[in-house]
Amino acid sequence: MSDDSTRRFFDGSPASERRPDYLPISDYAALGDTESVALVGLDGSIDWCCLPHFDSPAAFCRILDTDKGGYFSVYPVGAFSSRRTYVGDTNVLVTTFEASGGVARLTDFMAVEPRSHAGHEAIARPSHDVLRLVEGVAGEVELEIAFRPTFGYASQRTELFARSGGAVANGPDETLSMTSGLALEPTSDGGLAGRLAVRPGERHWVSVSYHRGKRYSVESAAAQDLDAALRETVGYWSRWSAQSTYDGPYAALVRRSALVLKLLTFSPTGAIVAAPTTSLPEEVGGERNWDYRFSWLRDSSLLLSALQAIGHHVEAERFFEWLEQVCIECREKLQIMFTIAGHTELPEQVLDHLRGYRGSRPVRIGNAAANQDQLDVFGEILDAAHVHFSSGDRIPQQQTWELLRDLAGRAARRWREPDRGIWEVRGPARHFLYSKLLCWVALDRAEKLARRHGLGGDVARWRATAAEIRRAILTSGCDDRLGAFTQAFDHRVLDASALAIPLVGFLPATDRRRAALRADRPGHRQPPRQPPPGVHAPRPRSFRPRHCQGRGNRRDGRRTHRERASAPTGSSRSGGGL
Question: Mean pLDDT, the chain, as a whole number?
Answer without folding.
Answer: 85
